[in-house]
Amino acid sequence: MLYEKHIKNILKQKIEISDIVSRRIGDTYHIVREDSNTVERPVKRRKVSYAAAVLAAVLCIGIPGGVYAAVEMDFFENMFGNGTKQSVDASVQTISNGKGQNVEVTLPAHEYVTVDKSRAEELIGKYVMDTPIVKKMGEHTLCVEGVAYDRNGMLMSFTIEREGGVTALAGDNETNRTKGAYFTENSDFYFHVESKAGIAGYENIYVDTQKSTDEKWYCYSYILWEETLSDADVPQLIIDNYPVVRKDLKEDSDIRTETLELGVKGQIPVQRIDMGEQGYLEYSPISLRVDMAKGMGLSQTEAQDPYYLERIEIKYKDGSSYIVADKENHIESSGYVCGIDTWYKVAFDRLVDTDEIKEIVVNGVTFRK
Fold first, then answer.
1. Cα 219–289–233 angle (5° rounding)?
2. Which 3 state secondary structure label does DSSP give 260?
3. Does one domain contain both 229 and 359?
4. What are the residues facing 110 on neighbouring strands?
5. Burial annotation 37-74 (CB, 10 A radius, 16+ → b, else e)
6. 46 partner at 20 to 30 Å CA-CA among 22, 188, 189, 232?
7. Do the beta carbons of residue 157 and residue 206 sit within 8 Å?
8. CB 259, CB 201: distance < 8 Å
9. Residues whose CB is less than 8 angstroms from the CB of residue 195 and which lie 6 or more positions away in sequence, other chains included
10. What is the reported pLDDT for 345?
11. Chain centroid offset of residue 7 CA
């Protein structure tokens, strides 16, 4: 849960960082993602239009619409379900703090639940990307299978494959619990999500180790926007194609940057609970953001530090609840979290039925519908 103001574009950022970094690593589970092998080099880029990329024989095709119904159901399972995801208990591990030292930390418990696909279809089905997209990048093939987004976050299910084994990404059960999958130094491309207005998307990539093989990886990306999107803004996939692998990039390397439209169908509506200075919160079936500067009893400085998030619980009308985070009991059940300014943001990894919410409690402050 890092205070993130870093642009994810490889050509603008100096290091690759995850959300779960904290200066209080000694008494919380936050993990450093920083790695000496992920240092980026400034490079010269040559922008290429999507049409030009196609003319250059870079494959980008749509999957026939008749296949889509099944793909959409897979999207709901991939992003929200537990068919291939195993819940884990909190555990104590010794890890590197990124500064050459080992520290003992508690990795939080994470619960995955089943998804009601019919209900998912009712809540967000009409907003899910219509047609999956296949994109050839060197020896790897990327398939974006599903996308859904709102003004605060986005979900993206994709596969990446390569004959002989995937080399562009690194990820496993350990990164699923900590920093998320990341691009390797042997990759000859890089991609990230950014809105058309230039708003960066920060992400955590979960690798489905049960479905994946050496040659084909199934990945689920949980994304949060640096700033809230306007109603007209849409997400895009930004792809950097390298002339060499990342570790061999030079100052004057000629990088071709492409922008890929994702074929989204509009923003999932968010609901707002505005209690003035007593609290402000927005939520949808896929995300939540809360202003920690209002109603939490925190100073402005404290409100900008995600460390002060103690607990988020979504309570339903039937008496059940979804504990999104509970610092005291070492629970963190979400796809991604980050703090930006005084906003604490969450991308859910389970479907939240907004029609059935009774109230949402953040740090003891109750937000009622």
1. 70
2. strand
3. no
4. 88
5. ebebeebeeeebeeeebeeeebebeeeeeeebeebbbb
6. 232
7. no
8. no
9. 201, 225, 229, 233, 234, 235, 236
10. 97
11. 14
Domain count, the chain: 2
pLDDT in the model for residue 71: 60
Give me the average pLDDT of each 10-residue run along the chain (369 residues): 33 36 35 32 36 31 46 88 96 84 92 97 94 92 97 98 97 94 97 96 97 98 97 96 95 93 93 98 98 96 94 98 97 96 97 98 96
Q: What crossing angle do the helices spanning 117-124 and 68-80 adopt, rounded to 10°? A: 100
- Please tell me the pTM assigned to this model: 0.83
- pLDDT value of position 277: 96
Q: What is the pLDDT of residue 29?
A: 35
Helix (H) or strand (E) holding 366: strand 365-368
Establish if 4 belongs to a structural domain.
no
Domain boundary pick from 227, 261, 295: 261
Dihedral angle of Cα 174, 179, 181, 185, to the nearest 10 degrees: -110
Radius of gyration of the chain (CA): 20
Please report the pLDDT score of residue 93 as a whole number: 86
Distance CA 166, CA 161 (A): 6
User: 103 and 190 in one domain?
Assistant: yes
